[in-house]
Amino acid sequence: MSEQLSGAAILIRSLEHEDVEMIFGVPGGAILKAYDELYSSPIRHILARHEQGGGHMASGYAHATGRVGVTFATSGPGATNLITPLADAYMDSIPVVAITAQVGSTSIGLDAFQETHTWGISMPVTKHNYLVTDIDEIPSTIREAFHIASTGRPGPVLVDVTKDALADTMPWHGPQDIDLPGYRPSVKGHPRQVKAAMDAILRSERPVLYVGGGIIRAEASQKLRQFAEQQNLPVVTTLMARGAIPDSHPLTLGMSGMHGNYTATTAIQKSDLLITVGARFDDRVTGNPEFFAPHARVIHVDVDPAEIGKIRKVEIPIVGDAKAVLGQLLTEGAERLEHDPAPERTGWIETIRGWQRDFPLAYEQDPEGRILQQYVIDELSRRTDENTIAVAGVGQHQMWASQFWSFEHPNTWINSGGLGTMGYAVPAAIGAQAGMPDRTVIAIDGDGCFQMTFQELITAAQENIPVKIAVLNNASLGMVRQWQKLFYDGRFSATELSHSNPNIPMLAEAMGCAGFRAETPEDVIPTIEKGLAINDRPVVMEFVCDPDAMVFPMVVAGGSNDEVLMGPEDL
Question: Among 163, 270, 323, 468, which one carries the catalytic annotation?
């Protein structure tokens, strides 16, 4: 007779079959049976101090490793606390499986203790979700959840399991073959569309290869570089695609959009062809779509057909995986160029070089003045190797990090792009460090973001996860303050914080971390060196920064990308 296992044991064994190495979560009453089975599993559990932190840890782990991140939460408030990280992962196409417990199936709808309509609440912010009420459904549901989360356009999947399904018993029969007739993501692009795309590329005089986070998710960075070199195409990235092509590559123009650099934004505006791969024409890139790349025809490659034509009219749509389609374009390009060299486009490249020369990203640190955030980020980047993983929260520090950190490899830049989740950096960096223990992971955070989730540093200390946190403390909610200064006549309503409360180094020490503080520009490099030298516990480095510093270049929200403001004097 087959071994009888509880639903909870089957759940854990199913996760083991998916090669899950760690779970980030918080236990509670409804999910306690699963935690009891987890006690004897080889899967490592990392106890977050809040379910939101556990969700962001799973996301940071997935970002850094390319694997599916897993998070656990109990019913009711445990599940509702996961909604923000699920929404964050959904917007940025991050593969996460969230497993929550539900009250007993006969109690659903009766307002039982810690009951919430989890599958309903999470439906708009997940790629797919399940309510499992029968033990027999657990193995196949877990197999499907991992498949859906990691294929096609990746995203979060939630599995809500009732207490009785976890408690019931049955023989273990292992996961079955996946049969999802309604789920067949396209991989290869249509050959006719690939040929049409190559025709357009070879004819264009001012092309731009505009790429998004889909390149990272598809592990297509090498193909991207090869294709750019084959066709001599300048490359512009979105915020989510930083690192998809090395910053040191001569064809790299950097990030475009609201706080992108002048050259990247202007190259798109002046282009006659946009070869868009794995990007979704986010409003932070396009500004007013009516004025975005007005002279360009558009080739749009995306694994999600719903993104094609959603924002911008597309002349050549190609539905398919970024890596597969770039491979097809490379093959087609090689055949076309067998007897002819790639177009040099000398005039276009010279124009771009002129913009790079005339409108560089720059800052000037006054040795006697306040610490500039750009200076801290620049020095952190200089003093770490190119495999260091940089994680950012949301706001000014996020934009400065994307501008002044030098990215050479994919999966070395982690941030909350689409949802813009304050408090993301600390837990996401912990997840990334847990998943990549041999790499240096540095969270670049603002004091506002830091104060939302710093309690997760207790997790890092107790779990021996030596992540490093750089807090750029400008005593304010910086990006909101910038908008108030520029557009609300300097009425700083509810954005002023404090340089001294909390005392961040003392707070760090109280949570088992090393804490340091830099108050002047001459303190910056010694503080960084001390922080980088410690690897046996988490480190928090606070930098007391200029509250009046603002992020430029800037395109006003809803405006035209032809109007790039290089400083406040341009308003």
Answer: 163
Flag whether the pTM goes above 0.85. yes
Distance separating alpha carbons of residues 283 and 310, to the nearest angstrom: 12
pLDDT tens string 338-353: 888 888 899 999 999 9
Parallel/antiparallel/unpaired status of strands 4-6 and 169-171: antiparallel
Q: Where are the alpha helices (DSSP H) in 262-405?
A: 262-270, 283-286, 322-336, 346-358, 373-382, 396-404
| pLDDT per position as a tens digit, 19-70 | 999 999 999 999 999 999 999 999 999 999 999 999 999 999 999 999 999 9
Burial 43-80 (b: 16+ CB within 10 A, else e): eebbbbbbbbbbbbbbbbbbbbbbbbbbbbbbbbebbb
Decide if 479 is catalytic.
Answer: yes
d(CA 184, CA 200): 29
**Which domains does the chain carry?**
4-171 (3.40.50.970), 191-358 (3.40.50.1220), 373-552 (3.40.50.970)
Q: Is residue 51 among the annotated active site residues? A: yes
Distance CA 321, CA 44 (A): 32
Phi, psi of 23 (to 5 degrees): -125, 135
3-state helix, strand, coil in the chain (%, to 5): 40, 20, 40
Catalytic residue (one of 21, 114, 492, 563): 114
Of the candidates 381, 384, 425, 422, the one whose C-alpha atom is nearest the C-alpha of residue 404 is 381
User: Which token pair is 9?
Assistant: 């044991």
Q: Torsion-angle region of residue 66: left (phi > 0), alpha (psi -120 to 50) or beta?
A: left
What is the Cα–Cα distance from 473 to 119, expressed in whole angstroms? 39
Instruction: Decide if 113 is catalytic.
Output: yes
CA pair distance 520, 152, nearest whole angstrom: 49
Residue type, 548: D
Residue 386 · residue 405 · CB < 8 Å: no
226, 231, 236, 242 alpha-carbon torsion, rounded to 10°? 0
DSSP string across 505-559 = HHHHHHTT-EEEEE-SHHHHHHHHHHHHH--SS-EEEEEEB-TT----SB--TTS
Best CA proximity match to 323, nearest among 408, 221, 249: 221
d(CA 552, CA 95): 32
Q: Which of 24, 33, 37, 51 is catalytic?
A: 51
HEC letters along 183-220: CCCCCCCCHHHHHHHHHHHHHCCCEEEEECCHHHHCCC
Catalytic residue among 4, 16, 113, 205: 113
Task: Please pick, among 91, 198, 258, 479, the residue that the annotation labels catalytic.
Answer: 479
CB 463 within 8 A of CB 24: no
Establish whether 396 is a catalytic residue.
Answer: no
For 465-485, what is each residue's pLDDT tens digit? 999 999 999 999 999 999 999
What span, in angstroms and rounded, lies between the C-alpha atoms of 221 and 225?
6
Give the C-alpha separation, 161 to 104, whole Å. Answer: 9
